[in-house]
Design goal:
The complex is a heterodimer of chains A (194) and B (191). Chain A has 194 residues and is of the alpha/beta class. Chain A is 47% helix and 20% strand. Chain A folds into two domains: 42 residues; 144 residues, 3-Layer(aba) Sandwich (Rossmann fold). In chain A, strands 2-1-3-4-5 form a five-stranded mixed sheet. Chain B is α+β, with helices and mostly antiparallel strands and 191 residues long. Chain B has six helices and seven strands; from the N terminus they run ααβββββααββαα. Classes of the chains: A alpha/beta (194), B alpha+beta (191). At the A-B interface, α4 and α6 of A face β5, α4, β6, β7 and α6 of B.
């Protein structure tokens, strides 16, 4: 009885708190193992690389600045998705390893409605800049693995070029959400990943 | 007449020899200074220089940053304040396009201010608060062969000057119609 009395209630409270706060060794180990398994998954799962081609204006009377802005924004946004191992520019020299798992992104403008920032500011309801493009991801042998029509627009605030940024973000989002087929086995063998 | 000649003529010959020597030395030194400056500019000739806003694409430069765009020693250079300059060789510029754009002035603060004006007064302000800019777009090829595109916004009239200077130095300038035509030709050749 005497021994029990000597233990301070503060010490007891501290001990209880320590036990309550400290997670069990099993719980501590769990995230580490999942991280390890994820890392190992990444090391084994082959990833596509993508090469972005310059924008084809099609029949739309779109200005060169818009084509360039779409191309540059696509490069930016695709890099942000982390869906691809590498994002290459049009004409960029790629190593043989990259070529094996390379997809080519072609973008063709289908529809373009020129807007006006002043008109938007004055009327609010008119003067929107609208863009519609056809995006295709093709493999090296010309097989289309992804094809979508994507829109981008500026309705209220912002400069006309903002439509290109919105469009590129939508393209990248659509590609990210889509399930691309795994790179072919022959490509993997060529790449030394098998 | 005689009086005037006596007043001017006599005094003109009374400049002390030492003062003359100082004057000659002074003239000589300034001439040397000018000659030195001249040789300095001959090494790095600034063909064009103007304030510009980099909208996107020029590798190494921040988006929507305003700085000085210049052509010097066969390179197109963009420098924002004291930041290190970013440059590309004019030889690598493949195509230059010129366009114009009308923008609302004042940015976000102005937009908020206009929205706060009662009875739609902000819309009337918007009708007049816009400015025309030249938009110069260009395509260039980097060392790795990759195609880059860059867009700059310059005050009205400067874009044309820059395009002319770039074409004079060997860059190719084309209109949108030409570009479309060449693309169509390429696609026909493929078919």
């Amino acid at each position: 009885m005497k021994g029990i009395r000597t233990v301070s209630p503060f010490v007891l409270a501290a001990a209880v708190l320590t036990i309550a706060i400290t997670p069990s060794p099993r719980l501590l180990a769990q995230p580490a193992t999942t991280q390890l398994s994820r890392a190992s998954d990444n090391s084994h799962t082959p990833q596509w690389s993508v090469q972005v081609k310059t924008v084809d204006p099609g029949d739309a009377s779109i200005s060169a600045s818009f084509q360039i802005a779409i191309y540059e924004s696509l490069l930016d946004e695709l890099s942000k998705t982390k869906k691809f191992k590498q994002v290459f520019r049009d004409g960029e020299r790629t190593s043989s390893d990259d070529v094996a798992n390379l997809l080519i992104l072609r973008t063709k403008v289908e529809k373009y409605t020129a807007g006006s920032e002043t008109q938007r500011a004055v009327t609010t309801v008119s003067g929107a800049t609208k863009l519609t493009v056809r995006s295709q991801l093709c493999s090296q042998d010309g097989q289309v693995v992804f094809e979508r029509t994507v829109h981008g627009e500026v309705l209220f605030m912002g400069s006309n070029l903002r439509a290109t940024h919105n469009l590129a973000r939508n393209v990248a989002k659509t590609i990210k959400q889509s399930a691309l087929p795994a790179p072919s086995i022959s490509a993997l063998a060529q790449n030394g990943q098998l | 007449m005689n009086v005037a000649a006596a007043l001017v003529g006599d005094r003109s010959f009374r400049i002390p020899r030492s003062a003359m020597m100082v004057l000659i030395l002074l003239l000589g030194s300034t001439a040397g200074l000018f000659a030195k400056k001249g040789s300095g500019t001959a090494n790095s000739t600034v063909v064009f220089s103007a304030r510009a806003t980099h909208l996107l694409g020029f590798e190494g430069a921040k988006k929507n940053s305003t700085g000085t765009l210049s052509i010097q020693d066969g390179v197109l250079r963009f420098q924002k304040g004291s930041d290190p300059a970013v440059q590309v060789k004019i030889d690598s510029v493949q195509d230059v396009f010129l366009g114009d754009e009308s923008k609302q002035v004042g940015g976000l603060p102005m937009t908020v201010g206009k929205a706060a004006v009662p009875f739609g007064g902000g819309r009337v302000v918007s009708l007049f608060a816009h400015k025309k800019y030249d938009v110069l777009s260009m395509e260039y090829v980097a060392n790795d062969g990759g195609v880059h595109g860059a867009i700059f916004e310059l005050s009205s009239g400067q874009g044309r000057r820059l395009r002319d200077e770039l074409t004079a130095l060997g860059a190719h300038a084309s209109s949108n119609d030409e570009r479309k035509q060449s693309k169509m030709e390429v696609s026909n050749e493929r078919n």
